[in-house]
Amino acid sequence: MTASRNPVLHGLLAAARRLLCLIAVGLLLLAGGVDAAGLTQIRLFGFDEDQGLVVLYANAPMTARAFHLSSPERWVVDIPNAHYNDSTTTLGGIKGTPIRRIRAAQFKGGVLRIVFDLDRYAEFPQELTNPGPDNYRLSFRVAPGKASAAAHPTPVPEVARPTPRPPLKTPRVPLVLRPAPQPTRAPVSFARAHEHEEANGPSGLSLHRVGG
After folding, report:
1. pTM for this structure?
2. Integer Cα distance of 48 and 91 in angstroms
3. What is the DSSP code string of the chain?
């Protein structure tokens, strides 16, 4: 008797197939260390250029453990009891930082690992905030950010300028009017003039005797 002719046997086989499918799905989830129902769901992973932050958003608080690895240089962040369900798994390098690439991967045991591939040693401070209900943000400071740079611009060094000198003032000399010099005349001696007149007559005349 075949299963197609026996409805009971056919139903048992269909149930067995469904059970096997469920077992296979469960094994796949266990192999990835993921039990989505009991893990924190991380739904967004990206770089906030305005604030200079690498951010993760989740529906519950996250506890992150960060450490450094060398050869090559890496900054690693492990988040336990987390399930990453976003399509973005890689971010490119961030200009002005030692970050060449950022990777996200799901590990066994429900551990989400974020790896910062670096070209030199660096550490990135982290902060957990709660922007709203069922909305938690884990951020890593990797750059100053545009908002911070605008609020605190780099001071421009002042160029020393020469002290202005007051304009030179030509002293004003008061104008003094002086009388024109008079020609110098020799003083006349009246005694000598009298003697001269007695001998020669009045000035300008010559006396001559007439007749004897």
Report:
1. 0.53
2. 12
3. --TTT-HHHHHHHHHHHHHHHHHHHHHHHHHTT--GGGSEEEEEEEEETTTTEEEEEESS----EEEEETTTTEEEEEESSEEE--S--EEE--TTSSEEEEEEEEETTTEEEEEEEESS-----EEEEEEETTEEEEEEE-S--HHHHHHSPPPPPPPP-PPPPPPP-PPPPPP---PPPPPP-PPP-HHHHHHHHHHH-STT--------
pLDDT in tens, 87-136: 889 999 999 999 999 999 998 889 999 999 999 999 999 999 998 888 99
The answer to whether 24 and 17 have CB atoms below 8 angstroms apart is: no
- Pairwise CA distance, residues 4 & 9, whole Å: 8
Residues 6+ apart with CB under 8 A from 131: 137
The answer to whether the beta carbons of residues 148 and 138 sit under 8 Å apart is: no
Cβ 55 vs Cβ 43: under 8 Å? no
> So what's the pLDDT on residue 170?
63
| Alpha carbon 20 to its chain's center | 59
Are 3 and 13 spatial neighbours (Cβ–Cβ below 8 Å)?
A: yes
Q: Which tokens hold the place of 50?
A: 């305005």
